[in-house]
Amino acid sequence: MEALMELCDLIAQNPDQFADKLAWICGRCPPTESLLPGSPRLSRSHLNAVLAATRFLSKCPNYDDHRPKVAALEFLRSIPLSFHHSFWPQSFPDALIASFYADFLNYVCVASELSHDFGNEVAGFMGEIVLSAVVNNVSGDSGLIRAFLNSLSQNFPPILPSDANKLVSSLFDRLEISAPSSPREPASTTPEASSSQSSPLSANHYQANAKASPGNDASNASGSSSSGVADDAMPLSSSALVMNGGSVAWKSNVDVLVTGVGLNDGGGGGGAIYRRFLALFEEETVESLEKQEIAFKLIGHVLDKVSIDPKLLEQVRVIAKEQLQSMVVFLKIRKREWTEQGSSLKARINTKLSVYKAASRLQIKSLASLDLDGKSSKRLLHGTLALLIEAAEACLFSVWRKLRMCEELFSSLLAGISHIAVTRGGQLLRVLLIRFKPLVLTTCAQADTWGINQGAMFESILRTSCEIIEFGWSKDRSPVDTFIVGLATTIRERSDYEEVDGKEKQAVPILQLNVIRLLAAMNVSIDKPEVIEMILPLFVECLEEGDASVPSLLRLRVLCSNPEPSSVLLQILDAISRMASLGFEKTYREAVVLLTRNYLSKLSSVGSAESKTLAPEATTERVETLPAGFLLLACGLTSTKLRSDYRHRLLSLCSDVGLAAESKSGSSGADFLGPLLPAVAEICSDFDPTVDVEPSLLKLFRNLWFYIALFGLAPPVQRSQAPIKPFSTTLNSMGSMGTVALQAVGGPYMWNPQWSSAVQRISQGTPPLVVSSVKWLEDELELNALHNPGSRRGSGNEKVAVSVKATYLLAVAFLEIIRFSSNGGILNSGPNSTTSMSAFSCVFEYLKSPSLVPAVLQCLTAIVHRAFETALSWLEDRISETGNAAEIRESTLSVHTCFLIKSMSLREEHIRDISVNLLTQLRDRFPQILWNSSCLDCLLFSVHNDAPSALVNDPAWVSTVRSLYQRIVREWIIISLSYAPCSSQGLLQEKLCKANTWQRAQPTTDVVSLLSEIRIGTGKTDCWTGLKTANIPAVMAAAAAASGANFKMTEALNLEVLSTGIVSATVKCNHAGEIAGMKRLYENMESVNERDFGSTLTGSGGGLSRLISGAQHPRPKKDSFSEILLTRFVRLLQKFVYIAEKDGEVDKSSFRETCSQATALLLSNLDPGLNSNIESFSQLLRLLCWCPAYISTPDAMETGVFIWTWLVSAAPQLGAVVLAELVDAWLWTIDTKRGLFASEVRYSGPAAKLRPHLAPGEPELLPEIDTVDQIIAHRLWLGFFIDRFEVIRHDSVEQLLLLGRLLQGTTKFPWNFSRHPAATGTFFTVMLLGLKFCSCQYQGNLQSFKTGLQLLEDRIYR
Questions:
Q1: Within 10 Å of residue 660's Cβ, how many Cβ atoms?
Q2: How far is CA 501 from the centre of its chain?
Q3: Cα separation, 1125 vs 1157, whole angstroms
Q4: Helix axes of 456-475 and 477-489: crossing angle, nearest 10 degrees
Q5: Where does this protein have compositionally biased stretches of type Low complexity (predicted)?
Q6: Full-prediction pTM beyond 0.90?
């Protein structure tokens, strides 16, 4: 079924292309004769096809093919027949039938909304179908009819207006809903007037409060007071709130009604009435309640679709009103008073609440259908508003308020209140807000709305408040302002906690906390500066003068319902921070000043005599609450200007905090500065440390890191660390600050781990701590500004200055080492930057300072080397990562390498020497950078592309740097050629192609001069010493093939890298140019055709053209030229495979030309923005990998090695895909016994001819194919595999596992190697590759596969 739905969605996306599939689906729909009375059962395939056709119709309702529409309409007409189980497949459960109804009607409704014609056809007969189900004038199963009606209540198709009145009347008559005989006729005075089968929905149940006259609705709904609508002093709550130091209690209409029925009276006549109500509720069956819910929903849908008779509409409104009145009584019934208990009672309550929810929505829809311009309608809206608010309040105080259905009912009631607010142009807005405010306060006063998640009722109040405020903002500002200020003033109310009991103590903070959170969320949602300006002064006043100004239970309270510390202060700060984060500058500045002043005032009191008498909450505010406000503000600010300002202010605060900590003898500065670090980390997360920084901001960063080092807040930088001790956030005496700083170097970390993480994040956004002084660390005044000498004991300022210098150098070491330890040394980049920046760009800045004394230079050089070791450790720790983590590791390595290469062109000689030293170490530890395209590109061309213009005109500098680069480049190329000559030549050819497109000749000249002296060959070479991978004959042969040179395998190889590289690069450029030229020509021709086609249709002969071409359909879009070429080359390569399978001879030049052009086409379609055919792309790539294996000749394999090298060099991202295809092709040659794996005797050469002389058996005919050619092809192929192994062994675990699969398949028992003498060398080359691969068990990236490698090694040795 799921597959059929997916096929349907696919057809809907392009119905013309999949017209045959659509016809197949329609053909599986039940025929017309199967939908007649007495027809056989439908099958499951029939039902699935109907659903699929209707689903298609809901997505493409105006499609020309009418078969889906016919299938849907015919089945819809047969719905009355589906009320019998004989209509459905055998053993088709009722649950699946209900699911089918729901899905089918949903698709029909969607299609009716999208297509007016289809909707009219459905409406023509839908009313009769619904009436037949409601009246049940057809024999059928009641369960199936109810399932249909239930689905209909969720998805109601259109009906005719003439059917609407009959349907509503039938619902009143059949679904146990009784209505008054006349809209103005009073109800019967006795509940016995209704039959035992009638529903409590009947108006007969509410003699006391239910009158049918619309003119009396307002007074009826408001109980005993008809003037309560405009009385702001009468809040709607059934509980007492403590306000202004005294208890102010009120009774709402709910209390009046409840008292009237005796809900709060143990005896008397009222108690009898109450028991009668309870008995009536208990008499209702769950089935009856479900019918009522369906009826209300169906009537609501009818009101949405069409208009009904006004008298009938009045009956609907009265019944819905009586339901709401009934709900007030129902929700007041206590749980223990019900006869039922347990799950049955819960099911009854949920069902009854669902009925009330449907009735509340029906009441709003009935109001929307009335004429709202008259005076009577205004009274009607007043009454409905009062009733909705009373019902909502009843939900709040009900014992069932935590049920999901009760929460949904509450939300539905509030939606009705919001609807009334927007009626009559907002005329009722003032009255509504007066009545709505007590409901908001009542919701906020609920204890179970306080916590991390306030619940659905709180969210509903918030949503409705925002809707009303946003509407009233443009209609009538005055009541809206009064409403907002009225809510805000509740947080300033004082209470005498000594005169009230403990239960009331908790009520006020809950109300205040929720109101604060409500106002903050409202401001964020409304996002208007005027609202913020109204509320923010009240919040600030509360912090400075109200109960929140001193630590107390009101300011900081831990509630049992919330496991985390929360307080009025925290909520006020959270609200202020959220409002400030909206980007209004005035609000932001007030919030920052407020937070900063409060934090500094807390620090000033620490250590004083007054601090000994402070409550513990004061420390919690300083350590947790205020820092949380700073962090919230940092997270919420989005304006670049405000973030920059906040960064400066926050760093200034850190400097002041550090200085204040220094002035307090015996206290730990970490307790003062640490809590601020998460906020600093967040505000610095988008700061680019490589840009030019103002001296004032740079000094603030420098001060911050000075204190981080001094207080021991940085994570330890030594590799071997002791176990981390439990962190501390309280004041303690640590003795000397120098001891703390030294202990922080080796650990353990003593503070909150979040502070350590924050320091790491700060390091990514901190610029180099280079001071502006020419003497740098020799400027005593600038150094002493970081430190208060009065806090140290020593022999004068000299000792202090020396200590400060050492601490400052330690801060630099901490910063630069942590940069590399946190994320490998990649810095934050600007918002518009797309490249990563190496942290070496920061650490080298220290070395550029002029006139550094030797001691300082040695310290800074040591910091550079220590940072480099940290980077190496970070990279080595992730050597076994795969997937995205491996890509991040290799990207980090590439960024560092490229920066070190570019640093070799700097003027400072000592920086050039360090760069060369670090680059050499990096190349030796991670050889994969030798074949990294960006690194090689940077090495070959950066000396000219990135050199400063002022230095290019310096001949001495140019000569020195060019000589250095030539030496490094020559070493780089020779080493890469000695390990992987195929991949190295492929990369060099790509760079030659790139240099060929430049206008400047100097880079190309330098590259040519470097390559002209390099040769590789089978003879003695002076390029490298010792045994290298390139000395293996198979690798050398593959290298010759990868170069594109034309040579014979029997001749000695002496290959000039330059000449062959230039020739092959030219060939590649020519093929790429051919493809690009053909694409441009095709696109130009298409654009001309489109213009001609359009002008033809709009010209003088347009009428005839329309008749010929069919103007009702747009011109079909042709496939792109890339797709055409992809398909063409796939067919050409398939033709070569066909020739090879028929033992034909493949033309060498034609095959090479075709493969080269196909490769250029593939590479031109790698842009993710191109909409190329993925299937054809994959098929062409697979054929390029498999064709040489199919053909199995040396010429074909040479072409294959050349093409594969081209692919992996120009597009490294294809490396794993190409290798996977090649491994599959290699294993296929084992299965088909080709070349090296032709193990039959007749392929063994001389041994086959000399039978029975040398071996028993009869002589066999020699094979038609040349076995030696196939073995040579395998030898070339094997050389390419060894070359790729050297490239990927250090950086790609996935590709290493592919090679492991190849070796396992090759060496599996029994062995299938050929016994031909020509296969001897190739056989041992395979064994050599296996042993080289097994040696990876000692590498870090394959440690988890060590056992498998040992088994493979044992198999090879055996």
A1: 18
A2: 49
A3: 10
A4: 140
A5: 185-203, 212-230
A6: no
